[in-house]
Structure formats: structure tokens, C-alpha cells
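Cross-posting from the modeling subforum.

Setting up a comparison between two proteins and wanted a second pair of eyes on the formatting. Protein 1 (sequence, then C-alpha cells):
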Amino acid sequence: MRRSEKDGVSGLPFYALGASLSLFFFHRDIAIISIMFLVFSDPLSSFFGVLYGKDKIMPNKSLQGAVAGFFTCYLITLFYTMNTATIGTHILVFAIISGVIGASSELVSAFNIDDNLTIPVLSGLGLTLLNDFVTVFP
């Protein structure tokens, strides 16, 4: 348990709310990807940010953590879409932009909004808009 959660609300309600809202509002595949961003990218961003983060871009956010988040979200999207969508260059474009969306949704948590809520909801919203332009999930 984090020190901030000791005297306040834990991250679990935000985690459940973020995952539930994603599953309710977004296409199934987009919801799954956005929840995987939360499950994998959030801890890896934090790990690399704490361990190697010397270039601060925001309070409690480092360039190294953001880059780790980008690559994690990119790889999640790339591997997921390669197994569920028609193979083509549009998947690569979708995955690269998804990495940016996922990393950006992690940075929003610097504004005192729990990232367990912002990552799946903002990522799902961004991926839904992206899917309108680079259609991967019909």
C-alpha cells in the first residue's frame, strides 16, 4: 500500500471504475487494450521512472518513465492488433499513435487525478477517436 493510500482512499475503487467505464463505453477490443495499458504500462512507467528518471517533465513524472510507458503501450497495441485485426501498415500507424495516447493518459495523473481512472478512460477515448481515422476495429 502506498503512503498516500494509508490515510485516504486506495486505488482499487478508481481501478474498478476505470475498467468498468471502459468496458461499458468503448468497443470491446479498445476497452481491453486500454485496460491492458493500465495493467502493464502504469507499473512499468513507474518502475523505470523511479529507477532511471532523472529528467523531470512534470512533478512526479520523468521522461524515462514516459518513454517506458510509450513503448509498453505501443507493444501492447501492436501485439493485440496483430492477433485480432487484418494485418497491414495501418496496424503499425495505429500502434504508434496508441503509444502516444497511452503515455499521455499516464501523464494526466500528475494533476491529482488517480491514474487508475485516467489511463483506461482517456486511452479508451483516444483509441476510439483514432479508430475513426485509422480503422483497425470495425
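Protein 2 (same layout):
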Amino acid sequence: MGGKLQMRWKNLTEHTVYENPWLTVRLADVELPDGRHLDHFLIRQRPVALCAAVNDLNQVLLLWRHRFITDTWGWELPAGVVDADETVPEAAAREMLEETGWRPGRLEHLITVEPTNGLSDALHHVYWACGAEYVGEPEDYFESEKRDWIPLSEIPGMVADGTIRAANAVGALLLLHHRLTQD
């Protein structure tokens, strides 16, 4: 290619700096395309599963919650890490039931996103269900202040005004809006 550098960074080695059940912080020796090296911290994480249930009125079930790290409020999808003994769809259904009290219908894969791929290898797998059955109060009631069915037609405006700001929810809900509200 005429002497042009290939812009691929190479992870030569890495070692663990810190570890807990949710994540591992590692330090990598990275070789840049021009041959220089840099130390780069990265986070290795377990996969995350999310669930979007859409009812017959084209509304999606969302959680209104506070995130203490950024000190922000916003609407989000039920989500959590995938346990070692379950599949990703099982985790998505479990998280919806635990966090909302609703059991989703048959799940279909919607999208997989890498929300922080410059820092982490986290994969967020979003599933969606046509419908959900109310089972009772959420087991993980502390996850959100409220749960509500929000019209898909309102999603773009909520993304624009920042009431939906989590990257995984933004991507998934805009895709759902596009797929389910087009003629």
C-alpha cells in the first residue's frame, strides 16, 4: 500500500493489576503502528445481557434510575451480568423479571454493542421480546425508582433530551424504534 502504516495496535503482553467478581483491571504492553510502546490499562468484563419488552401498544418497558457514578437520572433497559451457569438470553429474561416484575415473551437477539471498546472488552447483548407477563413486584426493587411502559414514538426525543443516555439503551431503543415504527 505504498509504504502506508497499517494502523493496528498490537497487545504484546498484559498482566492483572486488580480483580473482583465483576471485572479485571489489566495493564498491557501495546505496540503502536510506528513501533513505539505504551502501557495501556484495560478492563476485562463478563458479558452483559439486556432485555427490551415491547407490548401491543408499541410501548417499551423501561426503568427510571439514578447512577451514582455520574450522578444522573435516566431511563434504561433492565440489564446485568451473565452468570456462568446461564445463556445470554436466559440472563436477559432473568434480569427483566428481577428488575421489573415482568416476564418477557419469546426473546430475539436485537444487537450486541461494545460500549467502551477503548477501555474495556465488555459486550452488551440486547434481546427484545414481543410482550411480557406481569408476575409481581420486582425482586430487585432497589434497581430503579419506577418502571413504566414508554411509547416507542417518544424514544428519539428522549435520546435527544438526555433522558435516555446509557449507550446500550440508546443504540437498542433507536434500532427498535426504527424497526417497529416504520411502515
